[in-house]
Give the backbone structure.
Amino acid sequence: MNDQAPLRVIGAEIERSDAHVKVTGRARYSYDAARPGMLHAKVLRSTRAHAKVLRVDASAARAMPGVHAVLTGVDLADVPMPVYGYFIKDQPILATDRVRYEGDMVAAVAAETEGQANAALARIVVEYEDLPALPDMEAALAEDAPELFEEAPIGIVPPYGAGSSGALRPRRNVCYSYAYETGDPSVFDECDHVFEDEFRFSRMHHLHLEPFVCLAHWKEGDEIELTTSCQNPFPLRKEIARIFRVPESRIAVHVPFVGGGFGSKNNCKTEPIALMLSRRTGRPVRFCLTMEEGFLTNTQHAAILRLKTGVMADGTLVARQSHVLLDSGAYSDASPLVAEKAGYRVAGPYRYKHISSVCDCVMTNQPPAGPFRGFGGTQATWASDSQIDMIARRLGIDPMEMRMKNLVDLHEPWVPGESGVDSDMREGLDLVAREVGYDRPREANRGVGLSIGFKDGGGVNKPAQARVKVSTNGDVHLMCGTVEIGQGARTALSQVVAEVMDCPLARVEYLPLDTRYTPFDQGTNASSGISVMGQAVERAARSVRQQVLQMAAEELGTEPDKLRLDNWTVIHGNESHALAPMIMGRYGGTGFEFTGDGFHKQPNDHHAPLETKSVFWEIGWAGVDLSVDPETGQVFIHKLVVSGDAGRAIHKLVCRGQDEGAALMGLGQALYERMIHDGTRLVNGEALMYRVPLAEDLPEVFEAITQEQGHGPGPFGAKGMGEGAMLPVASAVANAIEEAVGVRLTELPLTPERVLSALVEAGKA
Amino acid sequence: MTTLSENGKIDIAFTLNGQPVSRATTTSRTLSDLLRDDMDLKGTRVACGRTVCGACSVLVDGFPRAACSTFAFEVEGRSVTTIEGLEAEDGTLDPVQAAFAKKSAFQCGYCTSGMILLARALLAEHQRPDRETIREWISSNICRCTGYQLIIEAVEEAAETMAGKEAAE
Amino acid sequence: MFTAPAPRGLARSQADLPPVPLYRPDSVAEAIHALDTAPAPAALYAGGTDFFARLREGEAPAALVWLDRVQDLREVGRDDHALRLGALVTHHEAFRHPALDAVPGLAAAWRRIATVRIRRQATLGGNLMARRTRYELSILLTALGASAQMAGADGTIDLPVEDLWQADTATHPLLVSVTVPLEGCPRLDYERSMRPTFTQALAMRDGGWRLVVATEYLRPWAHDMAPGTPPAEATAALPADFADPAVSRAHMVRAGAAFLKRQIERMEAPA
Ligand SMILES: Cc1cc2nc3c(=O)[nH]c(=O)nc-3n(C[C@H](O)[C@H](O)[C@H](O)COP(=O)(O)OP(=O)(O)OC[C@H]3O[C@@H](n4cnc5c(N)ncnc54)[C@H](O)[C@@H]3O)c2cc1C
Ligand code: FES
Ligand code: FES
């Protein structure tokens, strides 16, 4: 509970620092970036799911009006290493000998206008020879399936700690496999019951509103200037340096406001093609994908999850084995990382004597899947916390009681070698159960379901650096690489600085992100903004503060700890001294700048399964009250309650907004939102047919409660937020459906058709 | 019949944020390109490009329209308000803008211009809308970040401010 | 039967439309004349809520015929025999028009189509002539046995609304209006709660009922039945290939029957 001492800026009811520019339309995004002489890029995409590229004839395209450059696979010969990917470098900048999904990029044009670029692309002739297509994981894993990559792409397995391991290409069409094991499998023999269940998870698209877009300029002397809508500018810089063999010091990546990403905007998307075209033409090149192309660029992972869980008759969990298959699509993108997370997290927030899990990334002829809010945790929670509920009901135990019995305690390491769990999960479950009316009597066909989503938070092996500068008159400059993608990082991190510096928030300026000057950060993901970068920022601010107080103490002939700051005056007892004249007196009339650096990285630790202990634990609790129409299978949500533990809420409305946004995304996933395929063909890949939740889809009552349990590692006890509330929604809905009508659905989305079929099968319709 | 253009060129005149403007453009120019690229009013965001998300909404004669899917020639003689036209001359925010800022009714901000203009039109038609009406109107546009609840609350807040102002006048 | 959309090699957009001649007719005759004399292919432009999606799908008109001034297309009226709705009538105008009272249930159904922003702009004509399975007026109007008045150089022809899906619009390209016959006092009930999978309209008039089922991806299926037909029997008549990747036939037969039963109850309940 929130028994923390009140702070001045942290937790205060203040406007976000990006409020004014966003409500007035002044905020600038990469989409808005333009330069004189800029050309526009467009690409030609494969219309085949899996084919050999026999011939690409682009001669007619080169002669089209307005065209400055045409690229096809052969042009990759100029590029030192024309493939990209996170662990596995398997995605070519343009397809060369093979296309692997409908939408694979085959040729690119830079022209004066997008229209001219498309007109030129339309003249390119591509000859294909179709190969058998693998639309889904079953097809890809079949005995006689063709190997999608005949030769092994370059890849790495990162160092893992106790119990974890990874393997490249362990079998046909599996590009990566992650495994985790702890405890002795023989404990299964002690179990009173062993339950095996299979779950299926459908695939969503991020549908970020700002498209994938960049403006690239390859200047003379191999100097690269890139403005891009991207969540991880530093790794992107590294990837570009590697692909084109240019020093990182010659690459400036600028990231203005990002109009949503939800995971999709990591690593290379539009950038390599735009850079190649810019190098060819010497002109700045803008490459903006349409939303329709967005669907073909990055998606969530569809998944099949098989769980085997051993339990005692009294509901005590003993052992869990799992096998997770992730549909990674045509290229690995972040799949190995997602596998790591899905495989690791699938045990959920409960205590086991033995856990063993394997997660395979299966290559198919679908658009590449990548990071998506929850990062494997969504898939894992769907299966994990559905099964807990199923087991409880099978044993005749109240599902809430079963959870309470098995939850890992506050401060108890989640698994051996891990950090202690930093939320009291029972407290959260109790809260949500109370709010949703878990104990209230219910009418027929009405049910309440609970669920807990659980993930390690803050990213693995993630360093963050920050710099805080204060100039003579007290203007504070915050420099760090966390991208403002909507999550409120600019505000929250500036608040941390303002709190430490005892100055008004308005005094703190979050400087534009430019990889040449901004201190290094691994990326804006894993809810790491506050928990990891926040610690770096806090340290930088404390360092500056200390320097200022030290100087003032010397000037005033006292000790720093006798002094305090108040909006750029120094308070000494009941005297106050303006700082500006003091600084000029000491450093001269031009003034001075105090600079503080901060760094945070969770220490490496070989006892921790992922090689570092989890920075924090992101937990989302959900309670759903719903009714089922047994004649039609329709589900009506009366009330959805979600809760996250912010540790300490730096900005309350930001926290609430994160949870509400995440929960509604989860509700869409639970009930209807999905990419629909006919074989390898995406049939709803545009905004009208792809249904995302609208305001009219809000449940009758929708509550997001921010807990402030105060155990977080971040500044002032804060933890990360933003993914947690998405995780438990689908399982909570499925759990509530079972309570309402006694049928269990194990495949998402929970459509009326699935509900009704299950009722019919059970003889209940 | 009027032939508005034989060769694809067309001159248009309209009122933009209260000021008369005229432009030589083409028949295929969209209103969003005209505003963003020809007039440098980049507060109008473009996302889906096909009338669905409403991020590009501007008010045409007071009602929201997707600027990405409106031809420039369609606003001939009409009055267009963009997000840039909502602030008073002295920079005072419109009550809807102020409420969105206060309630943090945005995250990435990409839907915000469109949502604010949509809410303006709503409040012009319904001084004290109930929640159902707000929901119905807000369902016109997509916000992928917020979960809509804070947007709805911001609209309620703006309605209250505006009603209070009216009562005071 | 479901057919998947063709794969697209190019990401077309508004930017692909070059400047083209633009005509603004004042009458149906002028509109037809403009279509005949403009560089081909010329496109009709009404509310524009679907038009830009068509550009993105690769349609490439060489001229635009902007219908907004054609007053004849805006008329709404009724007499004892028919309700007539002009093609340029927007959803917003339609569901508020008192003439719709001629068909109880029609306004209530129409009111739920699209969103507040779209309704003011989207027209009846565009909704039908876009010929997209996701659009619903074809469902409602097919249930009501409506006909479409299509104008061409040699005059106007009448087509059942359900035939618009496959109508060759070369000779009669312009939808002028839609006429709902009022014989037998038609009433309508529209079950839309299953979107985004399928919807179902039931029209009753003296002497006959008509059920129409459609999905996001399948054209409306119309089924005439005698009053009193058991719901399950009616939906069991769905064609064998009536299914798409989002919903199975079996589900529509089953849930559809449950809805149909409720629809009948609603419609037969004393007002
Ligand atoms: C966000 C959104 C939500 C929607 N939701 C729904 C919904 O819930 N239910 C639903 O039914 N629909 C829905 N729609 C579809 C909408 O109703 C149609 O787009 C609209 O009715 C089309 O009319 P328009 O005047 O805008 O057509 P336009 O875009 O102007 O034209 C569409 C097509 O029809 C042709 N055309 C137009 N008028 C005529 C005519 N008189 N004669 C011959 N051809 C003509 C045009 O040439 C063009 O090919 C939605 C659309 C959007 C964008
Ligand atoms: S961008 Fe115009 S409606 Fe989506
Ligand atoms: S704030 Fe990001 S889409 Fe609404």
